[in-house]
Write a structure and sequence with these properties.
heterohexamer, A: alpha+beta, five-stranded antiparallel sheet, B: mainly alpha, 15 helices, binds adenosine monophosphate, binds sodium ion
């Protein structure tokens, strides 16, 4: 049987202008990497059609060891408190090769 | 008469076509990156063009235009901010964010005005292009300053403004610097200034080789661009309910004020021809929907994006393209003639 | 001879190149939005072109062409539907969805035919362009009617057709209206009609300015477009196993029938020149892979998309481009000459 | 420790021609928003290469309070019963700021 | 109440040059389909900006019956052992219409 | 002097502009697919152009060029591999993957050289274009052979090379075949060869019709392409810390070696004009960042992509564009004159 190990997957959906800030924060929190997918959508801040640079969303994923999760969530809450529009959710996933996610990006 | 002629310009007609397509809920889907690519092309083309002309232009005059572009970029947002607060219907942070858009300019409107002038065979100076490039940055800066200033006042009024401290803290540690950095390294500013520089230094022979791409197909690409922008404008105007009558009126009054000021600066201060004056008027009248919105999202997260996007893209942009330009043209003729 | 010349047209050669690239499983990847952008450009260019010509054309004749385009759009799907049911191998819903595609047209095939005529320096009327724009809508409508009609018959045959009630209910409450709406506000129809209107009203001077974009680079863009469509055709033809021999034959016989009818309409009814007749023949022969498939997905979900996509894009399209056009040309010469 | 709240994330993968219908349904069901990501893929209805308007998929996400979930699933089942090809799955996620997801789009 | 059935969702994030290999493997393992989303990101193999053909990622999703999961994970581990950079995780999802996922792609 | 003139070519200036934009961390975002579309266009244009010329060229000479292109494609990676191992700082697998890139070519560098020659009105033969098309494949093959050879040696050294067996097994069952297949059906090879064929067989009249798209706007599109490539180069050069001084030096020395060999082949063996010689020199000097990296990712997964990408795109590419081309030009004049 396979050795699958539990990890936390944090997903953030927000405007792509926040991408650099999100990348910076996950770096500081010692994530081993991140993945960004382009998205559109709608919510309390209106429609994000993705047609122009001014209304494109990103779906930002990071798998992070649970001990580092809380710090990252602090950062995200801080952004939300400043007024930024973030949709944040955490999922339980089982990964192959967990050691991969404990080495932070050089 | 000029109003009529305006409506026979393919560029304007394509804007209308896109607007109608969305208004009647056509399933027409345009690839999400088309507008981005086209605007990069348009900025590059207009930059090369303007730079080439500037290469032969009067430096003192160029400097003068830059100076007045900066003045406009700082003054217009202040006027807009004051107006919005006077309405007592818009809070400080939204007022700051919205006002910043009107200090900057809309390349799409500017290019439509150029198409309009070309169509009437009216000449124009090259200085407005450099003003176009210059005006993004001051507007962003004023927006940031107005916002952080309002933030402090709010923090004071709210006794023990914990959040406000966070904010200023946030602003303090490098964020403000980062945003000033963005104001000056903004993508469209870079393309425009860079292309102008290249257009100014490149040999006439090499510019010759670029001409088919930069000049010949320009008007066609502009039509395609405005076609899509018409769709985006129609998409945004739907949300005008959200912004309410007050902002709706502002979205039409502010360009008239900015346009008038721009026309005076162009015609009397920089005394340009009718064509150049119209273009400066358009710089004053138009509101940015490329450089400023992302900056405001980052720096003024408290403001609601659907307010400033609906205003600049859904209301002021179509107003300028359809009604504003011929109107400013008529005024320009009065002022200059 | 004309067949040979056909194979020396860059546009056709690029189609073949794309087809081969996919057939030999090249890792060549084309950005997903390229084809979409190019087809917007092509529709815009051909629309402006046709509109400009129509502006000077005979209105009665134009009206006549529109009338016959509608007749073709309604008649061809009915023929296709009857043929498919006669095979007893295709169910009602799939027959309806497939048939609708053959009432509509393939802009790519039409443009290849234009490249073919240009290459042989054969002139053609501007009316077929307006027929191209008109033929999308009726085909979609017939498809919907055939489908909901079949749906009812199925519901009746299945005693107590609970689902059928849902279906009709679904159709009843606005959905049918929505689909008719789509038939007329379809994206490609909007661009084509809109551009034709603009081409018709715009001043010759302003059209002049668009010419480098709309005319000069047209053939090159078409080559790039057909290159990618060749890849897509090859991707689809792989699935021909799924569709089976019956549909395979239909994908070749139906264009011959539609082409013959189109040629007769073009040459005898509308008595156009050889060039115009060939184009009307192509309108009859070609099957839509832009407007109709999404409409059928929405309105006839019971039908299997890989059937109608494989037929229109994988079989009929390459057949028309490689074999059909020169064949229709030969026939057109018989009919007209 | 962080206050993370359980929510349901509904994901629908289907042809992009159904986007408007999906948006309409989640609106009616009182979702606070939605997110759309462009996708390609393959399944029983063949390959969706994403190269043409006729064969592009979307991955449609909506976080919806569990009490509204059942109604939304009814809508999706109705689409499937009509013959549409939908890949639908529900995941358990933990969100920051749950109040966000109970306000429906105005 | 709705009949939702548990399934396994396998997600693979890697360079898009591996797409064909992933598709081949899930076909062999009898998946009913797959979904691909384009992505960018960063990790131990550096940044994948998605700007050029040479540095674009994909996010590859497959819902697969749990009995076929182990075989698929073997394939993915084999790719990783060869040196390929794969981010692999498995999530528990509840699907509508589970029969759909047991028919393999013809 | 030629160095100076180099820096006044718009194409090079736009490369610099893009590089600077990224270096100063501008928020400028270019749609992800733009570079892909532009390189498809550029390959198609240069292919048609070259094919048209080759149609009238000397076949023996063409054959000769192809032969030498293959020789270069095989020889350069071997030289690079040896050099890298000699440093004792790079392991076998990375050496193999990196070396392969230098056997292949960079279309962007090649096109910049053409812009450079056009700007100085220096003529050039059409043979280098066909060499460009030919050189991708051998480089990939050598890379694969070097890699699997190293893999076996590693397996032997590591007693009981279990993994090695897997590897060879992997290679055995069709994978190597698959990779050879990729070497020859590589996307850019297909477009280039295909377009050359089309350019060679198409009638002059039809090529005439393509000229506005293929020739006239070419230089402008190239500027836009190099603008983006400048951004990508700057993005990659940031990672030069990772690659370390040794690889950094290799990224500058290897193009000098490859360039020298290419110049000798072009000037003395194929005795071309100064222009043609420069182009062959550029073929030798430049490193692929289109065809080879994906092949290496697939075939040599043990190698670290950020090594070969940083080298070819972040170091060798800008070096060739800014310094290399004028340098090779000077040398070409010595060799030929
Ligand atoms: N209930 C939801 N489900 C899925 N995505 C959402 C939801 N609400 C908001 N979003 C996404 O989050 C973005 C920001 O939402 P908001 O903060 O409500 O403006 C929207 O543009 C959507 O893409
Ligand atoms: N087993 C699966 N795993 C992931 N995605 C799937 C699966 N089956 C189908 N899909 C997606 O759902 C779409 C429609 O599937 P189908 O209804 O089988 O035609 C496909 O194009 C895929 O994108
Ligand atoms: N911790 C992580 N969270 C999310 N995605 C990741 C993570 N690590 C790596 N990735 C993704 O997996 C790809 C390959 O990662 P790597 O194998 O570390 O080079 C990266 O380009 C990212 O897109
Ligand atoms: Na303004
Ligand atoms: Na037809
Ligand atoms: Na080389």
């Amino acid at each position: 049987m396979h050795r699958l190990f539990p990890e936390k997957l944090v997903t953030v959906i927000t405007s792509d202008v926040l991408e650099d800030q999100l990348v910076g924060r996950v770096r500081n929190r010692g994530a081993s990497g991140y993945t960004v997918v382009r998205a559109r959508g709608a919510g309390s801040s209106g429609e994000q059609s993705g047609m122009l640079d001014i209304d494109t969303n990103i779906k930002f994923h990071v798998i992070i060891p649970s001990e580092r999760l809380s710090g990252l969530l602090d950062d995200l809450e801080q952004l939300i408190n400043k007024g930024h529009h973030l949709t944040v959710f955490v999922s339980d996933v089982s990964v192959l090769g967990p050691e991969k996610y404990s080495e932070s990006m050089e | 008469m000029s109003a009529l002629s305006n409506l026979l310009i393919p560029a304007v007609l394509f804007f209308a076509l896109g607007f109608i397509a969305r208004a009647i809920k056509s399933d027409l889907r345009v690839p999400p990156d088309l507008a981005k690519v086209l605007s990069i092309y348009l900025l590059m083309a207009i930059g090369l063009h303007g730079g080439y002309a500037l290469g032969k232009a009067d430096l003192a005059m160029a400097f003068n235009s830059v100076l007045w572009a900066i003045i406009l970029g700082f003054a217009l947002p202040l006027i807009g901010y004051a107006l919005l607060l006077m309405t007592r219907k818009v809070d400080h942070m939204n007022s700051a964010a919205i006002a910043a858009h009107y200090g900057s300019v809309s390349a799409g409107t500017f290019l439509t005005a150029i198409a309009y002038l070309d169509n009437l065979n009216i000449g124009y100076e090259s200085y407005p292009v450099i003003m176009l490039a210059v005006m993004e940055s001051p507007a962003i800066i004023v927006g940031l300053l107005l916002a952080s200033w309002s933030r402090q006042r709010l923090a004071v009024s709210a006794n023990g403004g914990g959040t406000a401290i966070i904010q200023r803290g946030g602003m303090g540690n490098g964020q403000l610097g980062g945003l000033l950095h963005e104001a000056f390294t903004n993508g469209s500013v870079i393309i425009l200034i860079g292309s102008m520089f290249i257009g100014a230094v490149a040999s006439p022979a090499s510019m010759e080789k670029l001409s088919p791409f930069v000049d010949d197909i320009f008007m066609g690409v502009l039509c395609l661009f405005l076609f899509e922008m018409g769709m985006e404008a129609a998409r945004r105007i739907r949300e005008f309910r959200k912004v309410g009558p007050v902002l709706l009126v502002f979205g039409i009054v502010m360009p008239l004020i900015g346009g008038a000021i721009g026309l005076l600066v162009g015609g009397l201060v920089l005394d340009m021809s009718v064509g150049g004056t119209l273009l400066v008027g358009v710089l004053g009248a138009s509101a940015s929907y490329i450089a400023v919105p992302p900056a405001m999202r980052l720096a003024v997260p408290e403001a609601n994006p659907s307010f400033y996007l609906t205003l600049s893209l859904g209301i002021t942009f179509p107003f300028n393209v359809i009604i504003g330009i011929p109107l400013y043209h008529a005024l320009a003729e009065r002022i200059v003639g």
